Amino acid sequence: FLQVMPMYHADGWNFTLLIPYLFNCSVVLTPKFNLNVCKDIYNVIKEYKCNVLVAIPSILDSIILFSQRYDKKELPCLDYVITSSEKLCKTTKIPFEELFNCRIYDLYGLTETQIVSYYNKDIDWIEGSVGKLQKGVQAKFEKDGELLVKSPYLFKEYCNNKALTDIVKKDGWFS
Q1: For every one of its 175 residues, what pLDDT tens digit does the chain have, with 9 covering 90 and above?
Q2: How far apart are CA 106 and CA 119, in angstroms?
Q3: Which string of DSSP letters, residue by residue, matches the chain?
Q4: pTM (predicted TM-score)
Q5: Strands lying side by side in the sheet with 173-174
Q6: By C-alpha distance, which of 129, 39, 23 is closest to 80?
Q7: What interhelical angle do 57-66 and 35-48 show, nearest 10?
Q8: Cα 151 to Cα 140: distance, rounded to the nearest angstrom
C-alpha cells in the first residue's frame, strides 16, 4: 500500500494503515503530499513494489500531470486504486486507469459515517454516481434535498461536543 493521505484523514488512517496490517501487507509512508512527493511517486511505486494506492481524485490529477516526465512503457502498474472524498470525473478516471493499467474503485462516505457506498469490480462505474449502498447502510433524502445516513458504522459522538452531535445526529440518522 502506498500511503499518501494525511493520517488524520479517515481514508489515510483506515484504508492505508489499519486494513493493510489486517492482511499482513506492507505500507509505504510518504511525507505530506506535495509536488515533490508527486514528482517521485512513480519511482516510489516501482522501488517499493506498491500495488495499492488510496488517494483523493485531486491527488490522482496531480499524478497524471507528472506522467509526462516518464516513459509510459516504464510506468509501474497498480492493482487497486481506491478514491473518495471528492467527485471522481471521467477526465481523471480514464487517463489514470490507462496510465497505470488499473481500475479505480470509488467510495463515498465521511469520517462520521465511514463507507456509505462503493464501487467494486462487479459494478459498472457511472459518472456522478456514488455506487451502491454498503450492507447495513440506509440513506434517504429530506424534502430540502439533504442526505441522511443511518449505519452500523456511524460515529458515536464528537469528542467533548454533545451539542454538535445532537445537531447532526437524530434518532440514529446522521445529516
Answers
A1: 898 887 776 656 776 778 888 889 898 988 888 888 888 888 899 999 999 998 889 999 999 998 888 877 777 889 989 888 888 999 999 999 999 989 999 888 887 888 888 888 888 888 888 889 999 999 999 999 999 999 998 989 999 999 999 999 999 999 9
A2: 5
A3: -EE-S-TTSHIIIIIIIIHHHHTT---EE-SS-SHHHHHHHHHHHHHHT--EEE--HHHHHHHHHHGGGS-GGGPPP-SEEEE-SS---HHHHHHHHHHHT--EEEEEEETTTEEEEE--TTS---TT---EEPTT-EEEE-TTS-EEEE-TT-----TT-HHHHHHHEETTEE-
A4: 0.81
A5: 138-141, 147-150, 173-174, 169-170
A6: 23
A7: 80
A8: 12
Residue type present at position 78:
L
Chain position carrying cell 512527493 = 37
Q: Which three cell numbers stand for residue 103?
A: 481500475
